[in-house]
UniProtKB/TrEMBL annotation:
GO terms for cellular component: membrane. It is a multi-pass membrane protein. Residues 422-432 have a biased composition (Acidic residues). Keywords: Membrane, Phosphate transport, Transmembrane, Transmembrane helix, Transport. The chain crosses the membrane at residues 20-45, 65-88, 100-118, 124-143, 258-275, 281-300, 312-331, 351-371, 392-411. Belongs to the major facilitator superfamily. Phosphate:H(+) symporter (TC 2.A.1.9) family. PANTHER family: SOLUTE CARRIER FAMILY 22 MEMBER. The keyword Hydrolase does not apply. GO terms for molecular function: transmembrane transporter activity. The keyword tRNA processing does not apply. Coiled coil: none annotated. Residues 418-444 are annotated as: Disordered. This is Inorganic phosphate transporter.
């Protein structure tokens, strides 16, 4: 038999949108902004580092990072991200979301301040690019510290019914009665991450969130990190040897900005508009499907797109892959893990899912770095072996998107359900035993 929901949690579920919600949106958004900024500015930074520190006088091409150095620069960002998501995800369930969020923001700001050294013109540009990410992190810290801990953590994990009721009474501007006895009842039987009960209830869910995020980020990050190479190959950007370092970075940034303005940002807003209407599952499935279609449409006739008169068509098709990534799995893979797992394990499971995504990003970044090299050894970048070429690399990304579509069927649909219903925290073990196995994993 399902348990009655705590009044403080029900108040959150039925509350009308108000200032508290908008503040939470801005704070969460700044966190995502900082994360994305850090990872995507690396492509610009690596260009500058290659031209500044690895220029060879008399060589016809501008300097580029040697393969080992490029792998280290890209890899250290991903390794740090994976470690942080696993550790701070776990810590978020132990110390609370508020404290860990504030801790990570301060670490980011302090690390950035260590980079305050300025050298020659092009040299300080890449430092400024990296340090700019500290600004939103610093601004967000103050506002997050003013907000209370989440009610679900306070009530269901910290088991402090009075504090949860007090916090939510203040931010929702309504009277909420504390229910310490009910909190005690709700939290008395709890299973851990490595228990058989978790495996039975959420094992396939965790496999679904980790696998889809992993597959998405192989395609998404490889496409993003190497936009500059793709655009140069089709002639949308002039050859690097015709530009100085600052000019090259400016033109790459301009191209990336156009892609963002006309594809990635609108894709997110479409998700905002439709996620509670058609649901997470359908959006994710649709996104992977169209990413597959457009990636194959780019890859199979790739030689056609390299002709000057077809560049605009390539850019449009390429932009559509990003549109359906964000109106698709690049939004839902973030959302679903925060909705389907128990409160006491939610941060940990979200961290595991996100770390799996960054592992996919590493595979995509390093794999694409080598695979996209020309099959003709004389046309590869300095220090790189021959690869499978850009066309075949894009075909591989299309196959990966298709796999993401298949693994989406492991992810349940949380739309229209409370977090407790979705995570099955309101369900007694006896009722779980009587439910058919398939009802816990298929979309509803």
């Amino acid at each position: 038999m399902a348990r009655d929901e705590l009044k403080v949690l029900n108040a959150l579920d039925v509350a009308k949108t108000q200032l508290y919600h908008f503040t939470a949106i801005v704070i969460a958004g700044m966190g995502f902004f900082t994360d994305a900024y850090d990872l995507f500015c690396i492509s610009l930074v690596t260009k500058l580092l290659g031209r500044i520190y690895y220029h060879v006088d008399g060589y016809p091409k501008p300097g580029t990072l040697p393969p080992g150095v490029a792998a280290a620069v890209n890899g250290v960002a991903f390794v740090g991200t994976i470690a942080g998501q696993l550790f701070f995800g776990w810590l978020g369930d132990k110390m609370g979301r508020k404290r860990v969020y504030g801790m990570t923001l301060m670490i980011m700001v302090l690390v950035r301040l260590w980079g305050l050294e300025f050298w020659q013109a092009a040299d300080y540009v890449w430092r400024i690019i990296l340090m700019f990410g500290a600004i939103p992190a610093g601004m967000t810290y103050y506002w997050r510290m003013k907000m209370p801990e989440t009610a679900r953590y306070t009530a269901l994990v910290a088991k402090n019914a009075k504090q949860a009721a007090s916090d939510m009474s203040r931010v929702l501007q309504m009277d909420i009665v504390a229910e310490p006895d009910k909190v005690e009842e709700v939290t008395k039987k709890q299973f851990g991450l490595f228990s058989k009960e978790f495996l039975r209830r959420h094992g396939l869910h965790l496999l679904g969130t980790t696998s889809t995020w992993f597959l998405l980020d192989i395609a998404f990050y490889s496409s993003n990190l190497f936009q500059k190479d793709i655009f140069t190959n089709i002639g949308w950007l002039p050859p690097a040897k015709t530009m100085n370092a600052i000019e090259e970075v400016y033109k790459i940034a301009r191209a990336q900005t156009l892609i963002a303005l006309f594809s990635t940002v609108p894709g997110y807003w479409f998700t905002v508009a439709f996620i509670d209407r058609i649901g997470r599952f359908k959006i994710q499935l649709m996104g992977f499907f169209f990413m597959t279609v457009f990636m194959f449409a780019l890859a199979i006739p790739y030689d056609h797109w390299t002709h000057k008169e077809n560049r605009i068509g390539f850019v449009v098709m390429y932009s559509l892959t990003f549109f359906f990534s964000n109106f698709g799995p690049n939004a839902t893979t973030f959302v679903v893990p925060a909705e389907i797992f128990p409160a006491r394990l939610r941060s940990t499971c979200h961290g595991i899912s996100a770390a799996s995504g960054k592992a996919g990003a590493m595979v995509g970044a390093f794999g694409f770095l080598y695979a996209s090299q020309s099959q003709d050894k004389t046309k590869t970048d300095k220090g790189y072996p021959a690869g499978i070429g850009m066309k075949n690399s894009l075909i591989v990304l299309g196959v990966i998107n298709a796999l993401g579509m298949l693994f989406t069927f492991l992810v349940p649909e949380p739309n229209g359900k409370s977090l407790e219903d979705m995570s099955q925290e309101n369900v007694e073990e006896e009722e779980m035993e009587s439910r058919p196995q398939h009802s816990r994993t298929v979309p509803v």
